[in-house]
Specification:
- The protein is 39% helix and 14% strand.
- It has eleven helices and 13 strands.
- The protein has helices at residues 35-46, 94-106, 133-136, 144-158, 161-167, 177-195, 200-215, 266-274, 293-303, 317-347, 363-373; strands spanning 22-23, 33-34, 50-55, 68-73, 77-82, 116-117, 121-125, 225-228, 237-241, 250-255, 262-265, 309-310, 313-314.
- The protein has a five-stranded antiparallel beta sheet with strand order 3-4-5-7-6.
- α4 (144-158) packs across α9 (293-303), α7 packs antiparallel against α10 and α7 (200-215) packs parallel to α11 (363-373).
- The longest helix has 31 residues, at 317-347.
- The radius of gyration is 21 Å and the shape is globular.
């Protein structure tokens, strides 16, 4: 299956190299981009002549990705992100994702503003760093400075609600608990349908986990409807190692991947970040395998402009922690369903991303862990 520019790395794709062929032609292809349209469009909107294009390792050094490319122009370098024809059931379309990059960049989130976008691709500035959670968390100490930086970023995201409503009215909904529950139930149903086929054991485990999730919902759920990243986890943070005398740990360069952003509960992002599936074998570092969740929450609440409320009282770290297991279970179920689809696409040659599982994942175990979190 062709998934590149149909050019070897470093081959020129400038004016003289343009051909009226598809990027990844064929009905089985993951990416269908008209190269004859792409190159002139990039030249026009970037005011730069693209000289070379080569596969980029998602800035993670985990291996070459077939949907991220390094574009080198005469003036600068860029990242070209090409989107699959069959995104996840809850993914935002490309134009919405471009707006998210721009919106949150303007609001002070450390995320790059999009330079150019189309119905099939997105161009971002080239940044240096590592966004592979497996590399970031290969340590056994808490990185408190990075934990605070992440807490501050999430607080900025969650505090942008007023402008978010004005910029994304189509994504705003009835901000009531019944409406949110209906939305989450619909999302899980879509993911469950999208995840098939799963084996019988995984299907039963997923069904039981979802049933137990709704039966175990905490009373007086912390209901703080805010703009959410939707995939706020270590693998979507672009980091650089601190340098200098005595320097240790990582510093945040950018928050990436707004594919699942939208209005949701603040606790959803926190539960996703701290879910066991995203601790990268560092269970003692309950904030994404980077630091302690309690430290993260302390800084998060400090940086929120308007202190979040739980009913008529300010929310506390203890109150968030008391309900976090439920949102972690929601995260585990959600990830298990997404992972099942990823494996299906990998197995059938529809997706060759290097970070996808090389062996069949035990998604049934994820669903069982979700049930354990629910007690």
């Amino acid at each position: 299956m062709a998934t590149g520019f149909n050019n070897p790395p470093n081959r020129a794709i400038g004016k003289d190299a343009v051909q009226a062929t598809d990027l990844g032609s064929g009905p089985e292809s993951e990416f269908l981009i008209d190269r004859a349209r792409l190159v002139p469009s990039l030249a026009k909107h970037l005011a730069d002549e693209i000289i070379t294009c080569q596969p980029l390792s998602i800035i993670t050094k985990a291996g070459a990705s077939h949907h991220h490319f390094l574009l080198r122009g005469k003036k600068s370098s860029y990242v070209l992100k090409i989107f699959p024809r069959e995104p996840f059931a809850i993914s935002r379309n490309i134009m919405q994702q471009r707006k998210f990059y721009d919106f949150f960049h303007r609001h002070g989130v450390m995320t790059p503003g999009a330079l150019h976008g189309d119905s099939q691709w997105l161009v971002l500035p080239l940044l240096s760093g590592v966004s592979d959670g497996r590399l970031v968390t290969q340590k056994n100490y808490a990185d408190d400075d990075l934990t605070e930086s992440l807490a501050q970023q999430l607080a900025i995201i969650h505090d942008s609600k007023h402008d978010f409503r004005q910029n994304f009215p189509d994504l705003c909904c009835d901000e009531t608990l019944p409406a949110w529950l209906a939305q989450k139930n619909s999302e899980l149903e879509k993911l469950f349908k999208d995840a098939r086929p799963m084996d019988d054991g995984a299907t039963r485990a997923a069904t039981r986990a979802i049933e137990k999730l709704w039966a175990s919902m905490p009373e007086n759920l912390w209901f703080d409807m805010v703009p959410c990243h939707g995939d706020f986890r270590t693998g979507n943070f672009l980091l650089q190692a601190n340098t200098g005398d005595g320097a240790a740990g990582q510093k945040l360069v950018a928050v990436l991947d707004w594919e699942m952003a939208g209005l949701g509960l603040a606790a959803e992002d926190i539960g996703w970040l701290s879910a066991p599936c995203w601790l990268y074998h560092q269970p003692q570092l309950t904030c994404g395998g980077i630091g302690k969740l309690e430290v993260f929450l302390q800084h998060y609440l400090f940086h929120r402009k308007a202190p979040p409320q739980a009913g008529d009282k300010k929310i506390t770290i203890a109150a968030i922690m008391a309900q976090n297991h439920w949102f972690q279970a929601l995260a585990m179920i959600r990830w298990g369903l997404i992972l099942s689809k990823q494996w299906h696409r990998k197995q059938h040659g529809l997706d060759k991303l290097p970070e996808l599982p090389q062996e069949k994942p035990d998604v049934a175990e994820l669903f069982k862990q979700a049930q354990q979190l629910l007690g």
